Amino acid sequence: MTSNRELFFKHLGQTSPEPFALEIEKAEGIYMYAPCGKKYIDLIAGVSVSNVGHRHPKIVEAIKNQADKYMHLMVYGEYIQSPQVRLATKLAAVLPADISSIYLVNSGSEAIDGAMKLAKRATGRGEFIAFKNAYHGGTHGALSLMSDDTFTQAFRPLLPGITFLDFNATEQLNQITEKTAAVVAEAIQAEGGIIPAQQEFMKALRQRCTQTGTLLILDEVQTGFGRTGKFFGFEHYGIVPDIICMAKGMGGGMPIGAFAASKELMDCFQSAPVLGHITTFGGHPISCVAAEASLDILTSEKIIEQVDAKGKLLLNLLKHPAILSIRGQGLFYAVELGSFAKVQQFIKNGAEIGYATDWFLFCDTHFRIAPPLTITEKEIREAVSKIIKGLSGLSL
After folding, report:
1. Does residue 269 carry a pLDDT above 80?
2. Cα–Cα distance for residue pair 260/199, rounded to 1 Å
3. CATH value at residue 267
4. What is the pLDDT of residues 230-242, one digit of tens each?
5. Do residues 86 and 156 both lie within one domain?
6. CATH of residue 48
7. Does one domain contain both 267 and 158?
């Protein structure tokens, strides 16, 4: 009989020549289980998706209850659907007061593309500024914001009018002009290897955008929903963007994303042309109730308030001579080993020891630690023990 592994390589489109191909049959909390029963600690959380852990019972219950009522009804925005209304209302309550209008989509890439369209429509401008070593998604609009030719050259021509600046280079912000529709940035560069923005840089960026009438779009796809110890990463900087993009940790494991802005700004999509942005499955009711449940869990169980303490415990425990540096915030860390070969071996060691991690697109000398935010003190100690064992097994 043909195995799942053989069928995986035969029928699923592959995007790398050697995928990790870890087969998982079940996941719960911070753990993933292979068909043989082997248990892995998830240090990736689906790339910051499973912030409240795998299969949180409240999310599973919400999904089952909604499936008993209805699933897809009509393209987004045409029918009043309670799951969408409740989710948008609760999101607005945790966003800055002026950012009260939520457009629900299916993913982070879609959120970025929608935000870019809104910026062009609202400003009448066509140029964008992004930052080197940032990753905003794989669709053509989002991909156009990627500076690395290795990932983009095969898909050109991409969107014109994109200028790339160095992250945290305040002196380069004068390149934002009255022709710039929007600047797209992260509060913490995720795939650059967890690089936080400097306080003075973020304040200067906000000020320059205001001066030039440029919209500031902040990508909170990885940093949102508590990952950094605050609900959104930009909250560490005392600024408010014009548009916020979110996804990943938003859905508690279900596919959903959103971009949010003021109602005045979002209403630009209503005219010239009408139906300025359309999605069929955006705001799917099953994903919406999962996202609502995840939001309720984060707030009612005060999970975000515990993130900093958990991160500090992890850092205090994680000591090993193979570690050259650790940077990050909350439960969002990049651990430097010095070479991609060492990172690869450390990841492979996890298959035997019982942990799962990966590297960063633009920083392959570091591995990722971003477990579910629900991880307990006991589980942190267990995770660190396995990480240290994996580091001790490096032969390079």
Report:
1. yes
2. 23
3. 3.40.640.10
4. 999 999 999 999 9
5. yes
6. 3.90.1150.10
7. yes
Residue range 289-302, pLDDT digits in tens: 999 999 999 999 99
Whether the CB-CB separation of 145 and 115 falls below 8 Å is answered with no
Instruction: Concatenate the DSSP letters of all residues of 42-107 into one string.
Output: ESSHHHHT-TT-BT-HHHHHHHHHHHTT-S--SSTTSS--HHHHHHHHHHHHHS-TT--EEEEESS
Looking at residue 335, its amino acid is V
Q: Is the dihedral of CA 118, 241, 82, 230 positive or negative?
A: positive
CA angle 90, 183, 168 (to 5 degrees): 105
CA 139 – CA 153 distance, rounded (Å): 14
Strands 257-261, 101-105: pairing kind? antiparallel
How many residues in the chain?
A: 396
Confidence class of residue 229 from pLDDT cuts 50, 70 and 90?
Answer: very high
- Contact 44/368 with Cβ under 8 angstroms? yes
Residues 6+ apart with CB under 8 A from 42: 27, 30, 31, 32, 50, 54, 356, 371, 372
- Distance in Å from the first CA to the final CA of the chain: 39
Q: Which domain holds residue 234?
A: 58-300
Q: How many domains, in total, are found in the chain?
A: 2
When the pLDDT of each residue in the chain is averaged and rounded to a whole number, the result is 96
Output the six-digit token pair for 59.
Answer: 């999310």
